[in-house]
Amino acid sequence: MLPPGFTGAAIDRADHLRLDQTRIAELVVHAEARLLRLEGIDPAIDESGRLVWEPVTGDGHLFLGLDEGRPLFAPIVEAGSGAARAFALFDLLNRMDARDAAIWGVARSLNTWHHRHVFCGVCGTRTVSFRAGWGRKCPDCGAEHFPRVDPVVIMLAEHEGRVLLARQPHYPPRRYSALAGFVEPGESIEEAVAREIEEEAGIEVSRVRYVASQPWPFPGQLMIACIADAASDAIRLDTNELEDAFWASRDEVRAALAGAPDSRFGAPPPFAIANTLLTRWSEQECEED
Amino acid sequence: MLPPGFTGAAIDRADHLRLDQTRIAELVVHAEARLLRLEGIDPAIDESGRLVWEPVTGDGHLFLGLDEGRPLFAPIVEAGSGAARAFALFDLLNRMDARDAAIWGVARSLNTWHHRHVFCGVCGTRTVSFRAGWGRKCPDCGAEHFPRVDPVVIMLAEHEGRVLLARQPHYPPRRYSALAGFVEPGESIEEAVAREIEEEAGIEVSRVRYVASQPWPFPGQLMIACIADAASDAIRLDTNELEDAFWASRDEVRAALAGAPDSRFGAPPPFAIANTLLTRWSEQECEED
Fold this sequence. Notes:
2 copies of one chain form a homodimer. Chain A is of the alpha+beta class and 289 residues long. Chain A is built from 6 helices and 15 strands. Chain A folds into 2 domains: 15-145, Nucleoside Triphosphate Pyrophosphohydrolase (Alpha-Beta Complex), CATH 3.90.79.20; 150-283, Nucleoside Triphosphate Pyrophosphohydrolase (Alpha-Beta Complex), CATH 3.90.79.10. Chain A has helices at 21-28, 87-95, 98-115, 189-201, 250-257, 273-283, and strands at residues 34-36, 38-39, 42-43, 53-55, 62-67, 70-74, 128-130, 135-137, 144-145, 150-159, 162-167, 179-182, 205-216, 221-230, 244-249. At the A-B interface, helix 3, helix 4 and strand 13 of A face helix 3, helix 4 and strand 13 of B. Chains A, B: Its cofactor is Mg(2+); Zn(2+).
């Protein structure tokens, strides 16, 4: 079974080195050190779908970690130089090596986080990068700011062997996916799943089960995939968020995942955890208890 | 089985109302509306361990949601007026009604988040609260800032029927707990669990299983509790983070949870998910597969 997208970077993040400026300076000039080439904050890839690495020049880069001892860095680029998320990028991701996508995802998330934290939220002073790019510090009030990861629940409500799928207006044609929403302060994963399904589809759920997770670098979510039992199949759609929803059978989900031309809907792409979630559900012959 | 601490608030967060200033203004003057009394950002509680609610005065409060139709608000207090986290507060939590602790947790997390986002991270301008306290907006560059939730993994490495417990130097005497650490950008829950156990104890793990989650309002974590299989029981302690670690048997964990005077260690308090995690593990007679 394929692991979720954007996982498997398998780099030693070596976070104990981040605060050690002497060691980081040594790693920058290490003969094997490499700097990731970015186009804005998008990946530069070669004809075989691999990331492009260059000798390290300059400093102040993000320390990605050690890859079998080789120090890897990524540039921290100026705000505004990032290409916008676009379907062209998603086409690129379909061609990229999975491990490379995971490595690039770290560089993208950290860069967008830096862009949102140029000034100190506590006192308004311009901040500086520290911890080899894994933080920003205020030279005035001393506040330290750390990279943000937003947990998001993404889930299938299940009712009598079918699961609830929905589409947002901006999706590509025919695409349907799982419901999703940000976990708010003061709620568990299970409570967020129940709240989001109630808000978006008017359905009460119970018995929330965790399935898998992935980092999602647009800009920096932790996607937490779950399945829950729906008390009813009567949908009350939140039309501010969604334009349609329906209950899909296992056969319909399998056909969509296989890319069958006559499938009822188009599946989310393999690098999205909605695909992982649908794949795992569709491979169950019957519901485990 | 007890649900994890800080869950079960069971309030309708009614997030569709947050942007509706007219409706929020109506709810503020609703005859049944109530405002949470805080002491700094600590809870004020009465002699029976319940939160104290007062008629709503003023405006600009945080809208907590609807409790059986009754609008509940919490004050957004000035930065610096928050009492420091202290063991006295933890004693209070042991006496608090569980549902009330969950409601107060939301108010505490949101208040500390506001204090860290007084100025816009993008441009340095002073921000203003919007969405009934569930966001801050920059009047200059227009950037919107949303409450932050930091996902943290907390986990037991298991080896031949025993689990790894450790203590940090600031713990109360005799206390041991599960290892824990922040999920970083670019990693899944499973990858974060493996990285943290490797960093803190030098142990390789596989087969990470999700167990439960809870919000933790100090200041705003989402605690994600897992169990994983350890490849070895040879501990290489990270002495920067931990002062001791050992492998605990089910009997030792049960004795600690029961508060037995001759227990090998002191268990984490019931409102911490480490307690939930140890309780669930100790109740398994044998490992499920």
